Amino acid sequence: MLPYGRQSINEADVEAVSEVLRGEWLTTGPYVARFEEELEKFTGAARVVSCTSGTAALHIAYAAAGTGPGDEVITTPMTFVATASGALATGAKVVFADIDETANIDPAAVEAAVTPATKIIAGVDYAGQPVEIDRLNEIAHANGALTVEDAAHSIGSLVDGRPIGSVADLTTFSFFPTKNMTTAEGGAVATLDEDLGRRAHEFHFIGLVRDRERMRYPDEGPWHQEVHEWGLNYRLSDVHAALGISQLARLEQFKKRRREIFDRYQRELAGIDGVEVHRIRDGVDPIWHLYPARILGGRRREVFEKMRERGIGVQVNYLPVYWHPLFEDLGYKRGMCPNAERFYSEQLSLPLFADLTDDDQTRVIETLAEVLAS
């Protein structure tokens, strides 16, 4: 089965991990610090905190922002559930705003959803294409809120020449194997604000405070550390960080190849009846994580099943979040975001990863054309 996504691991990656395994530190060691520093340089963020997953990164970001009961987090339904469930974990209420033609959250829908309780506006860079972050920042800051950019799909993307991680108040990354780069499992939070960075670090480090000037009982002894606020163990290990450092060095290469694959899909699918290519807005330079074709005429499930029967592992990204039983049981109703629901009914992710060969892509395109013609 040809997968829709897959990691690219070379000998340099293997050696990087092996070096850690031969050394003294497996976790909370020098590779974690170096990985975070490299991410800061790459993204232009003031502080980066690595963590165990993209889901953990979202929870950390919401917690660092002080999100809690009585607050509202506005986000898109066209995302993996963690963007919303991370907000629920802090006790906040999730408010869904509909998407635009790019499948990203619509700033006009966001603006209409803002209330005095809005704490966070969380956009998602769907498929790798950045959200309209300047507009979301404007809306958020005018209402005393912060922005979280869920960039699980988009490390390496640029918006008006600026790297993702340097624009939103808080940005979260995922390094799952199918993403643009991987640490096997892992994620990170990037922020422009040093205080938010400190809060993110402490939350992901079980809430531990080691700064004597902030301690309540600083004279307890040289071993002393305190917990001032609740936190969790979301720390990334040096083993994972070493792989991340090696992968980050290859990210521009990955971006180039992903763009070649995406652009070929755009060109060749445009001439096939029954499929619509993805829409791109001006001012963005994405690293493409997904190729989200739209299958027209109510045939998405049929095409999904026939492609898989032929050994091509297409995928659907994503079920509208509020369709999940968790959210249904909280009172969310279908029909609230019609653009997202229409997009979901047509969306089909075609294979896209850095090591996809030209011949494999030809097979995908020809098979899709045959299925749609049948």
Can you give me a brief rundown of this structure?
The protein is 37% helix and 15% strand. It contains 13 helices and 15 strands.
Verbal overview:
- The chain is built from 13 helices and 15 strands.
- β2, α4 and β3 form a beta-alpha-beta unit.
- α2 packs parallel to α8.
- The chain is globular and about 75 Å long.
- The two termini are 22 Å apart.
- The model has no long low-confidence stretch (mean pLDDT 97).
Unreliable spans are none
State the CATH topology of the largest domain.
Aspartate Aminotransferase, domain 2
**Number of extended strands:** 15
Q: Give the strand order, joined by hyphens, for the main sheet.
A: 1-9-8-5-4-2-3
Count the DSSP helices.
13
- Average pLDDT: 97
Helix content: 25-40%
CATH class of the largest domain: Alpha Beta
